[in-house]
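re: the backbone from monday

yeah here it is again, tokenized this time
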């Protein structure tokens, strides 16, 4: 998605307008009496039940808990039924299986497949089903749940492998034990650095740990599989290849390695053509084709240390109507984004992986939606608006929209929704964003709300809608 939008639309104040520029504000139609009469209904349940159900017991955490609990049950069953040596092999197999699942849910084609399956549900299906299918973007719970389970399983295997070496010796068991402890250390570096509060505070370090510790683990996993197969072949009096191809670990690690290579094999250095919109935002244009609406792209100027995800917007020639590449909107939200804004010259950036579906792709599940954006959050929404797959109403809260993002962006919003509420926070103050969103839901009879904003505003709108029975979806910031 686009870089983190500005955080202005938090404090509830101001009145509703339907405007593009300060000059147009004077010409804006007055709000109808019907709109002014709309009031927020009471939230459902008590403070305790609302907080637990809509904040703490998120779909992401439910998926994580389900995967980890299922692994815990399997571990207990194996502890009761297995001896030490079979349990060691079972633990290694379980660790490999969980690692494969963990990596699959970071592989672009597999994730896109999950999205495609979810949005196959027709609009004739009950909303209760479609609103749950739209939560497919919580797939990060599978990634983190399987990853933590893999670390625990591998710790169990390593302890048992150490015990086997102490009891029986053998040079292969020694090497296997050393490699196993290296993998355990790498796994726990990844898990600890990925803890949400640590990840947010030291994001660049998190990316470096995740990447290099992951690659180290993968290499050690291969060496471990070869050594383990050698030990098994020694016990069976069979060659290494015989034991290797009969090991589930070997096939699991083949899938895991293929997923990793597939992503990095698409590493390309692409020319970008910046269009500086203001000192707060820029638009980076890519001239190559093949990028459809609803997809995101990872870009970087330091491919081994950091990557930044942005939603793509098709670049349409106003005269011919032909698509000439695509672009991403970047706003000032850190060192990388500031560097892109301050450098308006043609240059090259790295692009990696296949185009990836994002949150807004699930909007196809609904007949009518309301899209809420703050600041540069309008960038991902432009892709949705261009696709025209779902009727929508728009609420965009930002400072000086035309000055900051340019008339092209503003006009694109107005084309998608001629009655779009473009809220200039510089002249009108901050909106009561939950109330304004609710008004658009009632006016348009929308089935769901999608918001692209910073974590605080996203949580505010999603919580405010869900506690009033309206499906609402925002980005996951701890996945």
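seq for it, each position gets an aa:
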């Amino acid at each position: 998605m686009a870089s983190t939008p500005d955080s202005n639309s938090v404090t509830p104040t101001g009145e509703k307008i339907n405007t593009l520029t300060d000059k147009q504000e004077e010409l804006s139609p007055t709000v109808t009496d019907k709109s002014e009469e709309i009031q927020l209904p009471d939230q459902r349940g008590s403070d305790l039940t609302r907080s637990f159900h809509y904040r703490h017991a998120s779909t992401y955490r439910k998926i994580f808990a389900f995967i980890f609990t299922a692994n815990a049950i399997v571990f207990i069953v194996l502890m009761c039924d297995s001896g030490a040596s079979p349990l060691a092999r079972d633990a290694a197999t379980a660790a490999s299986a969980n690692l494969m699942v963990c990596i699959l849910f970071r592989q672009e084609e597999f994730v896109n497949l999950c999205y495609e399956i979810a949005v196959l549900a027709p609009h004739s299906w009950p909303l209760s089903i479609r609103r749950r299918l739209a939560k497919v973007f919580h797939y990060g719970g599978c990634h983190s749940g399987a990853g933590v389970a893999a670390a625990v399983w591998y710790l169990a295997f390593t302890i048992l492998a150490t015990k086997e070496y102490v009891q029986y010796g053998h040079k292969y068991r020694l090497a296997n034990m050393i490699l196993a402890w290296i993998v355990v250390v790498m796994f726990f570096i990844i898990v600890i650095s990925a803890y949400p509060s640590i990840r947010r505070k030291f994001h660049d370090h998190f990316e470096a740990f995740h990447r290099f510790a992951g690659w180290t683990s993968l290499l050690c996993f291969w060496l471990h599989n070869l050594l383990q197969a050698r030990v098994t072949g020694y016990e069976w009096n069979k060659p290494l290849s015989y034991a290797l191809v009969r090991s589930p670990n070997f096939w699991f690690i083949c899938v895991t390695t293929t997923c990793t290579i597939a992503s990095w094999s698409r590493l390309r250095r692409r020319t970008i053509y910046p269009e500086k919109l203001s000192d707060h935002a820029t638009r980076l244009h890519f001239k190559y084709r093949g990028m459809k609406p609803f997809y995101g792209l990872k870009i970087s100027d330091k491919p081994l240390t950091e990557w930044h995800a942005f939603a793509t917007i098709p670049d349409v020639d106003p005269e011919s109507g032909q698509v000439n590449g695509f672009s991403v909107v970047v706003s000032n939200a850190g060192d990388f984004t500031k560097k892109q804004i301050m450098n308006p010259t043609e240059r090259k950036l790295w692009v990696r992986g296949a185009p990836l579906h994002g949150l807004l792709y699930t909007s196809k599940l609904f007949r009518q939606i309301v899209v809420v954006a703050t600041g540069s959050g309008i960038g991902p929404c432009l892709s949705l608006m261009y696709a025209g797959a779902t009727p929508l109403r728009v609420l965009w809260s930002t400072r000086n929209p035309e000055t900051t993002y340019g008339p092209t962006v503003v006009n694109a919003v107005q084309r998608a929704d001629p009655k779009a509420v473009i809220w200039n926070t510089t002249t009108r103050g901050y909106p009561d964003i939950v109330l304004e969103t609710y008004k658009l839901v009632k006016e348009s009879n929308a089935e769901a709300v999608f918001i692209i904003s910073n974590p605080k505003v996203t949580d505010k709108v999603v919580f405010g809608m869900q506690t009033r029975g309206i499906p609402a979806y925002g980005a996951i910031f701890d996945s």
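The radius of gyration is 26 Å. The longest strand covers residues 347-357.
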